[in-house]
Amino acid sequence: MATAVTMQHLCVTHFSTCMYREPPTLPPSLLQRRLYGTVGLTLLIGFYLLTGLTGHGLWRGDDARYFGPVFSMLHGEGLLFPQLGGEPFLEYPPLYYWCAALLSSITGGVLSPHDGARLASAIFTALTVYWVARTAEYLYGRPTRTLAALLIFGSLGLVLHSHETQPLLALMAMVAFVLNGISHVPTHPLAGSLQAGLGCALAMLAGGIPGMLFTVTLFAVTIIVSPECRNSRASGGLLAGLILAVCLGGIWPLLLHMQQPALFAIWRRDQWQQITGHGFSIEDFVRLIKLLSWFLWPLWPLAIWSLWRERHRLFQLCWLLPLLATAFSLVLLVLSSNQSQPAALPLLPTMALLAAGGISTLRRGAANAFDWFSAMTFGVFAILVWIAWTAQVFAWPPGLAHHVAHVTPAFTLTGTIPQTLLGISICLLWFSLVWWLPRRPARGAMNWAIGMTMLWCLAVTLLMPWFDHGRSYRPMGEALSKVFAPYAGECVASSGKLPDPIRSMLDYYVGLRPVPLRNGSTSCRLLLIYADHKTEKPSKIKGWEPLWTLQRGGRKQFETLYLYTRPDHG
Questions:
Q1: d(C-alpha 157, C-alpha 172), whole Å
Q2: What is the SS3 assignment for 337-369?
Q3: Strand order in the sheet with 559-565
Q4: CB within 8 A of 75, min separation 6: which ones?
Q5: CB atoms within 10 A of CB 461
């Protein structure tokens, strides 16, 4: 009788058919509840996010590119509109840069500016995990809260970008915030709609017009289509949320238009080009599929299973909401023709929700296969990390050691006893946690997230000096500072547009902002030329003499800076 009453209660609840129901298993012990509950999950996410976040130089690529606007804000420049090296930086609005600059200022006495700025990435990633977990709890039931959190921070695409300066992490967090607000609309129409509207406005500050267009469209279409939201209270909440989104989201563009109308016009054209894109070919489609196939692993197989299993109930909000969000995000990717990895970050919250909703229905064989695949995969990769370490420290195996020496000929990795003991401890802790995992369908997801954390921590512990040597701009910046010391305050010209990471590195480490040549001429006495692996070495330039050359990296990461001087400059 008690069971019947309980089932009847579930049937009349808001999302009865979406609730996660675990099959009967042996109850976990008190230690297991602590290790694999909220406390253990919080510690796991903390280790994952903070390991490797600080303690290294400014890395090439996005880490250097997006630190440039933060560094400008720290010096009082570009507070309304981001700047890089004194010039407007159009890629993203200022929400992430504001947060990174604030954190860098607060931690200035403890961390270097670029390390403090990266804390914004950890905070936005943690907010994403939190809001995705809460949304999953409301849509599918409390047991999926931990599953959704484990799935999203265990995804392959998040690990590197969550540890660098990356503005799209702010947009990812706002998408998760909007999803959480929409999920509350059936039971709390006004509060849920206002939260979604606030998230849409913040998405404008995080991702520009494309970000707001994505979230507002998702908000409106979900409320209109969902059967659970077809009532006057939800309609009124939708109107209130849209008004809030438009009013708050329009404040920053309005201020920009009032303060710098010319810059506002440039930004508006750039935003329109992002939405319309430049066409989408078959080759672009193939590249996008290849990117998403590994970036969203292991979310997409579980999400496909969820949709197939619940194909007859896709119009229920618990499935309709993440499905629409995934579809709109993919449409935006196609329209913008953006094939970069960070562009897929807003897909992670939606795919994590779909995956978390379907884990409970995995058949025993599939669940066990996922569990074993997780354990074996990270076990093998942990062995490979140790082999990469021994190849550099002990020159074994010889073939790999020779290859590593060829890629980084000027670097020698020195192994220490504390480093070795810490690496062994990480592996033993991983093995213990996996061994004592409770037997349940969610074991595979927990195994995967624990393995991802172990692998990242092990790689940082053993190989961080090698990573830093190959990716850091600090040695190049220090060398340039010595070269330019005798020419302090002098004008430096550049041939062609320097890449954004190089401009950011020059501004941060050297305090140098080269000016481009005007019609092939300049009044500066120094000329700086950049070349990468795709660029031929510059030929002799009439009237200029080579002064200094610096090369770094190898193969596709090969970069060269050439400095010329004009002796007859009067």
A1: 12
A2: CCCCCHHHCCHHHHHHHHHHHHHHHCCHHHHHH
A3: 515-516, 492-494, 526-532, 559-565, 545-552
A4: none
A5: 20
The residues with which 549 forms a beta bridge, in sequence order, are: 562
CA 16, distance to chain mean position in Å, is: 34
Alpha-carbon span 222 to 321, nearest angstrom: 6
* Dist. CA 178–CA 347, nearest whole Å: 13
State whether the Cα torsion 460-54-292-445 is positive or negative: positive
The structure tokens listed for 87 are: 């010039």
Tokens of 171: 């947009």
Token couple for 470:
């190959």
Question: Rounded to the nearest 5°, which phi and psi values hold at 161?
Answer: -70, -25
Q: Which of these, 170, 186, 177, lies nearest to 228 by C-alpha position?
A: 186
| C-beta of residue 59 within 8 angstroms of C-beta of residue 495 | no
Residues 6+ apart with CB under 8 A from 151: 298, 299, 302, 352, 355, 356, 445, 448, 449
* Tens digit of each residue's pLDDT, the chain (570 residues): 444 444 334 333 444 456 655 555 555 666 666 667 788 889 999 999 999 999 999 999 999 999 999 999 999 999 999 999 999 999 999 999 999 999 999 999 999 999 999 999 999 999 999 999 999 999 998 889 989 999 999 999 999 999 999 999 999 999 999 999 999 999 999 999 999 999 999 999 999 999 999 999 999 999 999 999 988 899 999 999 999 999 999 999 999 999 999 999 999 999 998 888 666 778 888 899 999 999 999 999 999 999 999 999 999 999 999 999 999 999 988 888 788 999 999 999 999 999 998 887 888 888 889 999 999 999 999 999 999 999 999 989 988 888 887 777 778 888 889 999 999 999 999 999 898 887 776 788 889 999 999 999 999 999 999 989 888 999 889 888 998 888 888 899 998 778 999 999 999 999 999 998 888 788 888 999 998 877 777 777 778 888 888 887 766 778 889 999 887 654
Q: What angle do CA 147, 148, 154 make, to 5 degrees?
A: 90
Let me know: does 319 contact 310? Beta carbons within 8 Å: yes
Report d(CA 370, CA 382) in Å as an integer: 18
